[in-house]
Design goal:
With 257 residues, the protein is an alpha+beta fold. It is built from five helices and 14 strands.
Length: 257
């Protein structure tokens, strides 16, 4: 796996502490997904189309200095909190029915994953064409909170007509997307059937999408109350509420409320 030894945020001019080993998919999430020691990954160019079981330590790259890595640790904490809650709902071990998430921070985390893939040389299109390994400064600025995403870009919850989500005991997939000029456009992230897409390019199109949803509400006949994933967004934005059957079994409906 690529380990460049160069901080992708070096242009900010305040690197410090030497280079660190960065888990571009947060280490805490990898440990959650690896609790059965069967973390399976696919889609990386270094796997050459294969699927492989890997330890979390294998998914590292030397792409951030310690100072910048530490600066982004709060984004990883938000993502870990989200994934831990989703998994507890799927396993029936939840301790709370509602989780509130800062939507903008979740967007920054998703784009941090994208930038890490690019900087480590692991960004590629579906046909295997590698994407440029130098993340654009405009994208890095968003990751570090120095700038905002363009209007219309950001987090979407995606529902494709006729799509079937099969629940996996251990599984996460993500895919970087580029535009026709091979510039960063979006990243698709799927965790046990919950599929998000975070766009950097507002012109990037997917089949069906719900921009910055207000809430994802999960229901089950065995629950007295739904489990609610609530997003906080800045300004006057009011997204939709999406209702899912929490069993995530073949043939059951995924429907916007």
């Amino acid at each position: 796996m690529s380990a460049t030894g160069t901080c992708y945020a070096k242009y900010l001019g305040d690197c410090g502490g030497g280079i660190s080993r960065e888990h571009y998919l947060s280490a805490g999430i990898l440990e959650i997904l690896n609790d059965t020691r069967q973390l399976t990954v696919r889609g990386y160019p270094f796997l050459d189309g294969a699927e492989m079981r890997l330890a979390p330590a294998a998914l590292q790259a030397r792409v951030l200095c310690r100072r910048h890595n530490s600066e982004l640790s709060g984004l990883d904490e938000i993502a870990v909190k989200l994934f831990r809650w989703v998994q507890s709902v799927q396993r029936g071990t939840w301790t709370r029915d509602r989780l509130a998430v800062d939507g903008v921070c979740l967007e920054r985390w998703a784009l941090k994953l994208y930038v890490g893939l690019l900087a480590s040389g692991q960004g590629a299109t579906t046909d295997g064409t590698r994407l440029p390994s130098d993340p654009p400064p405009s994208l890095v600025d968003v990751v570090f909170g120095r700038n905002l995403l363009p209007p219309g870009a950001g987090l979407h919850y995606t529902l494709d007509k006729g799509e079937v989500h099969e629940r996996r005991s251990t599984g996460v997939t993500f895919r970087p997307w580029s535009n026709l000029s091979f510039e960063p456009a979006a990243i698709d992230i799927d965790i046990n059937g919950l599929r998000f897409m975070c766009s950097f390019d507002p012109a990037f199109e997917v089949a069906t999408r719900h921009y910055r949803p207000a809430e994802i509400r999960m229901t089950s006949p065995s629950w007295s109350r739904p489990k609610r994933l609530v997003f906080a967004w800045p300004g006057a934005h009011r997204g939709v509420t999406i209702t899912l059957d929490a069993r995530w079994h073949r043939g059951e409906r995924h429907r916007p409320a």
